[in-house]
Amino acid sequence: MKILVTGSNGMLGQDLCPILEDEGYIVEETTISDMDFTDKNQVITRIEETKPDFIMHLGAYTNVDKAEEERELAYKTNAEGTQNLAAICKDKDIPILYISTDYVFDGTKNGKYLPEDKQNPINVYGDSKYKGELAILENEKYYIVRTSWLYGHHGKNFVETMISLADKEEIKVVDDQRGCPTWTVDLANGIVKILKEKSPYGIYHVCGSGQTSWYGFACEIFKLCGKKVNIKPCTTKDFPRPAKRPMNSIMENKNILRPWELALRDYIELRCE
User: Fold this and answer.
1) Beta strands 142-147 and 54-57: pairing type?
2) Which of 79, 83, 89, 169 is the residue whose CA sits 20 to 30 A from 127?
3) Residue 43: phi, psi to the nearest 5?
4) What's domain 2-156+182-210+251-258's superfamily in CATH?
């Protein structure tokens, strides 16, 4: 099977593409520089040339706070760009997998979010990804994979930010937002599992099992790194950001991935090798 991957140079793409190749798939890697998926003609030309059997759409605008001021770019990338891919997949009967986010929810639910729960994004980034979901839903052969609190060795992320701050006199971290930390390697393996098991088309939550707050996440990072840090919990109001965050980002993943603490342990161990 030949799989065309957008955003192959991103944090997830750099882990997923080698794993796909190890599983025997032929991977056609694309980046915004060689196939700008916001340009419909470029999408059509590349897909007609490469004739993929499957498309994995990882490419996205992901700067949550900056999206509030760069609305046009966020929607062009996450909504219009996804529409371009969804349309040609529908026309050519190519299955597509789209990476989405916990930020399509408003965070007001008591309990875990289910794949079928109503979306109600509260920031531009979340809304732009939701619009992308709507485009994908026009197809018959699709997977929408929602993930959350993503970190990996190939990009800027919360884990690396915390480690870089370890020498400060005091660190304050938000303790009233809860979610499911997810390592890109685990997410990649979850995607491959869906593909290999020929799971029914639909929406999946592929995130670390269990849940924590950003403060709890940070405490675990420092514990695994063996660092003694003066870390204090604070509230969302104490740490204002341009974009609103859901207070509850916990998603029901049906144990498709292992506990987030185990993944973080392996991430830290690899990082220190």
Assistant:
1) unpaired
2) 89
3) -65, -50
4) NAD(P)-binding Rossmann-like Domain (3.40.50.720)
Which stretch of DSSP H or E encloses residue 125? helix 124-136
- The rounded distance, in Å, linking the Cα atoms of 218 and 158 is 8
Please tell me what DSSP assigns to residue 173: E
The dihedral sign for the CA sequence 94, 195, 157, 243: positive
**Closest to 74 measured CA to CA, from 145, 130, 148:** 130
Told to judge if 125 belongs to the known catalytic residues of this protein, a careful annotator would answer yes
Cα 242 off chain centre by: 20
For 116, the token pair is 């079928």
Produce one character per residue of 59-93: b if its CB has 16 or more CB atoms within 10 Å, e if not: bbbbebeebbebeeebbebbbbbbbbbbbbbbeee
CA angle 82, 248, 97 (to 5 degrees): 25
Q: 218-227: per-residue pLDDT in tens?
A: 999 999 999 9
The dihedral through the CA atoms of 254, 64, 117, 115 has a sign that is negative
Domain positions in the chain are: 2-156+182-210+251-258
What are the φ/ψ torsions at residue 23 (nearest 5 degrees)? -85, 0
- Of the residues 98, 113, 125, 142, only one is catalytic, namely 125
Q: Consecutive sets of 10 residues in the chain, 273 residues long: mean pLDDT of each?
A: 98 98 98 96 97 98 98 98 98 98 98 98 98 98 98 96 95 98 98 96 98 98 95 95 97 97 97 72
